[in-house]
Structures are given as structure tokens and as C-alpha cells.
Prior knowledge:
Layout: E1 2-6, H1 13-21, E2 38-47, E3 63-65, E4 68-77, H2 92-98, E5 104-110, H3 130-149, H4 152-161, H5 166-173, H6 181-191, H7 202-216, E6 219-224, H8 231-241, E7 247-249, H9 252-263, E8 267-268, E9 277-278, H10 286-303, H11 308-319, E10 322-328, E11 345-348, H12 353-360, H13 362-366, E12 368-373, E13 378-380, E14 391-396
Parallel strand pairs: 1-4, 1-5, 5-6, 6-7, 10-14
Antiparallel strand pairs: 2-4, 3-4, 8-9, 10-11, 12-13, 12-14
Helix pairs in contact: 1-9, 3-7, 5-6, 6-7
Amino acid sequence: MLIGVVGRTNTGKSSLFKAATLAEVEIGNRPFVTIKPSHGIGFVKVNCPDKDFNTICNPKNGYCLDGKRFVPVDILDVAGLIRGAHKGAGLGLQFLDDLRQADALIEVIDISGTTNDKGEQVEPGSYNPIEDIKVLEEEIDMWFFELIKKGWDKSAKQIQQEKLEVVPTLAKQFSGLKVTEEMVEDAIKELDLQKNITEWTEEDLKKLAVKLRKKSKPMIIAANKVDLAKGTENFEKLKKEFKEYEIIPCSAESELALREAAKKGLIKYIPGEKDFEILKENELNEQQKKALEFIKKNVLEKFGSTGVQDVLDKAVFELLKYIAVYPVANSKLEDKDGNRLPDCLIVPEGITALEFAYKVHSDIGDNFVKAIDLRTKQVIGKDHKLKNLDVIEIMTSK
Length: 398
């Protein structure tokens, strides 16, 4: 799974990326700070079953804090976007090509309106952040359209002359964009494009491009800098304007400050929580104390969190509809090396026990006999659909 972090330059993309991954990336108040894409590992947060089973977990990947399991996911911070990107303006084509393998997008906007369409700093509220969402939608939709349109006549004739099936042929053509047969089939049905494929108009193709973009690159909005002047006011306006999107109020700078302080042992902080505990007050200078007090009062108490963990969690579990499942080798919740609750896999909603076994390892899938839901102690078969936070013992013939 790959989550792309996108948006105009200088809106806080790299700050959010660094906060989510603690990767070393350049951050600055000037256009096009991010030129090359930055790849890092972020973590989604789910409940760990350790307390439910009265045990201590030993995660092999990710980590656990006070009953919260943090599971790794890939995140990509790409170059900033400007209008005309799909035609090559700015770093547009590079920006868009970097997104080919993304499963979902987090668009970071400066909700305070302090960054204009050129990525320059302006007075709070003097730029309308609604424009950023419209521009990104348009650029990615047109990018999809140009890719579909390119060589379309030749492809349509080939499908007709060779009597190829439309759905699998188109899905194969756009597989590099993470477009599946199911997405193509659903898009064609929703648009009622049942007529001869050679009769599809340019407008038909444009509508198809938009549908496939929304299905293969669903988007969530991170309304960053919400703690600045005009931030809350603009956030409320944005929610009314874009009801089809999940919009999360964010303060990436606050999250970054909290994670850095926690990393140094100055505070105890669990990402996504609404509070923190100061551990070494005597090691904090007055500036740091004031900064932490500001974050507590103007971000955590006001919005319930900094929003950074929330936007990543919602992208994976609500936008993409994934679930978290814990595989174990025996009823003691161990793997073959004796580690308890060592793994947590993020898998598609509706996955069956057999499909899950293959996710764990191909040999386990090949030799699958049955599985046991360790919460209910019930034996489940290969076609049983798993639920979020299931703990599954898989039994094999070898």
C-alpha cells in the first residue's frame, strides 16, 4: 500500500510527511522546496489485542504504545503542484508520474490562506484554499484523461476488430495506475457507456477518466495550519463546499514538535491522542514550554488531536476500507519463534481466511486446512470473511 501526499508547494506537505514518518526532509517557506519525491514509512494506529488477552506483545514490524499498535505503511511526498501540471507546467509531469502507484491521496492545503497559488507567503485569509482542491482535482483528472485519450482510437478499433473484451483490455491498459477490472466495469456501468466503444465521444472519455481517478486514487483533505488566523473559519467553509470529501483539521508543525519532543524523552505522547505528559520539565526552556502550552490549548483541546495521525488512519481504514488482522501460529498467540502477537496485517475489507493465509505466506496458503478465531474460539473455514482486529490462528497440513 502506498499513500501519496500531494498539494501545492509550501502548504505544509513536507511538514506533515516528516511528522508522520520522522524522515529527514527539507522544510522551508519557499516554492518548490520538495523537488524529488521523498519516500518514508508512516504508521496507522489500531487497537492491540494484548490487553484483551492479558499478555505482552512483541511486534516484529511497527511498535506498540499503551495498547495501541502502530503498523507501517508506505508514504510518498511528491513535488508541489501548480495549475497546468498535466501539460508539464512546473514539475507537473514528474509530480503526476510519481503518483502512478499510489492507492490513495492525502491532499495538504493551507487552510489559513497564507499561501497563494504560486506557493508564496501572503497575509492570512487573503488566499482562498478552496481553489487548491479544485486545481488538484482538475490536474489529476486531466492527467488521467490525457493517458486514456493517447492512442484511444487505435485501441478502440483493436478491441472491435479482434473482438476483445472491453473491461479486461482497458484494465490492462491502465493497470500502471492501479486501475482494476472491477473499477473499469463499475465506471462503465455508472456512466452507462454500453454503446459501441468506437462511438464513445471525447466527453465520454473525460467522464471515464474522472470516474477511474476517483476509484483508483481516492482523496482525503488535510486542512493544515488550522491553528493559524482564519484557519478555523476557512475550515468550516471548506466542509460546506466539499461535502463529498473527508476533511481533517491539521497542524503538522504541532505534530512534528510533539513527536520530536517525545523522541527526546521530554514528553510522553501517543500520536493521534488529545493530550501529552511532560516528563522532563526542567530540561525545557521557556520557549519550548510556551510552544507546548500553545499546542495543548489551541490544537489538542480545540480539535481533539493535531490531525496528522487521524488523516493517515482515515485514508487507510475509511477511504480504502482496509482492516487490521493479527495472524498467530498457535493458541498462545505466538509465532514459530515464540514472539507474541508479532504481526498485524493491513488487508482489504471482506478478505477470506484463505486469502489472508496467502497474505501471511504462500506456503501457509497452499497448505491451509482451517483457522481459529481466537477471540471466539470458533473454527472458521477458508471462505469465512475476517473482521477488523480479528486474531487468527492458521492451521496447515505441514
